[in-house]
Design goal:
- By secondary structure, the chain is of the alpha+beta class.
- It has one domain.
- Helices cover 25% and strands 30% of the residues.
- The strands form two sheets. Strands 3-2-1-6-7 form a five-stranded mixed β-sheet.
- A hairpin with a 5-residue loop joins strand 1 and strand 2.
- The chain is globular and about 45 Å long.
Amino acid sequence: MSRTASIFTPSAIFTSNLQSLMAEYPALEARVISHAASRFYQVQLVLEAAGEEEEEERSELLMKRGKPMLFRSLEDVYSELKRGGMSRAWLVSQVANDEMIGRPPQYHQPLSSRIPLSF
């Protein structure tokens, strides 16, 4: 298992070790996932594989006590990511409208669905 893959295990991305991951992997990207039918947010941490035989990205949800974290507001997300040493993230809104009418979901097109966040 590569070093990049070893950090992305279900037990690895906890709030307690987010700061050490940021220090070790500065290219770590945070995506704040929002769903149109929900008032909650989740944080997905993504590390693109660079210089390895694998060309895919690794991602996991931010966890606490073995469960994915749910946030009620963007302010809650900001404070948790700030505590972990992050100052930027992407807001990814997932809307099922396109899926309902048979088109591919728009959140797979990064330029039209990602909004930069700074805090």
